Hints:
By secondary structure, the protein is of the alpha/beta class. The chain has two domains: 2-168; 181-370, P-loop containing nucleotide triphosphate hydrolases (Rossmann fold), CATH 3.40.50.300. Helix content is 49%, strand content 14%. It contains 14 helices and ten strands. A hairpin with a 2-residue loop joins strand 9 and strand 10. Helix 4 (46-66) crosses helix 8. The longest helix has 27 residues, at 146-172. The chain is elongated, with a radius of gyration of 32 Å.
Amino acid sequence: MTEFTELLSPSGKLNALTNKLSILLSHLRDIRNSLKRISEGAIADDIELFEIKSLSMLNEKVKELLSPLSIQSVTLPDLSGLCNLLDPEGAGINSFYIYDSYSDELKGLRNQLKMGSDYENELHYRSNIIENQIREHLSKEIKMKFGQLEESLSNLAKIDILVAKAEQALRLGLSIPVVSKEKISYKALFNPEVEELLTKEGKSYQKTDIEFTSHKPLLITGSNMGGKSLTLKTLALCQFLFQSGFAIPAQECEIAPVKEIMLSTGDEEDYRKGLSSFSAEIKRIDSIIKRVRDGEKLLVLIDEPARTTNPYEGAALASSLLEILFLSKGFSVMTSHYTISDNKCDRLRVKGFYNGKMDYTLVIDSGTKTPAEALIIAESLDADKEWIELARMTMNKNTKQ
């Protein structure tokens, strides 16, 4: 995809040809079943011969269009001979029928039919026999080119996909990831959907940097509204994009492939099974733990585990979960607003409120106390002042006790 991204850039050679290439590729059809039938010895009907002629002509047109670019990542076979076979008169028209030029005898029979004859039925019969013989001959020739036709169909589809991916990367400002083994890192990571929504509202999106390694979980702490949940969902999105061969919403990135992405967002109530949100969350995390114990290389993303239970037990569940994730062969990131003293993890903290504004920067955190910014956030949202003041008085009273 890197090659196509460079070619499609404003200074790239393919940029001026994009519209023409897109129009050509819009005519690409999936004719694998027709090719399979012919490869197994079946005689192609006129529709199948039309499909193969169309593919051959499309192959040659795209090949000619891209030839000055010297593209290395995808090449197209030479199907000019097949084009000549299926277009013997050289009309270059995207249609097919059994042409007169295939057989002088057939041409003569058709001329007799045009002029009228008392033996019309016999003439039709003889014409049909010759036409079927021609179809059989063409099918044998096509069968010999089966490998090239299959390659053409596959590589034209590849070009179509690569062009679409490259256009998306340039339009959204995405980057090509570096493949890693033991580390996942992003510089200026962003969520394209959220960025688009904020832009429509006249707001700006604050991009973040994040890095974590295998075998050691990363704990992200910070107040509510600090973007922790969005960060986890964006990490999941990026991993899916990476493993599907797409560019990534970040300025730079290194990503390691994993067997599976396991995301637990905490809000997983399942009324169909009679499970509360807490019960559903515990079941989900338990299934993740089983996979971790099996030694699979996973990307585990858990958002504020046990958030809906009491703080004492919730903190204990979150802390013990980090200990289990420490044994993981893959990567794991967990967010929490609980105070956790576990030292078997790396820590990042959302910077939080600074000069009256939320700063979403993730900074290294060596402490164990979670920032207490709930009242500040409530004030910024113009919540009831008496409510906030009573809460502050309650906090002060509890601190003195």
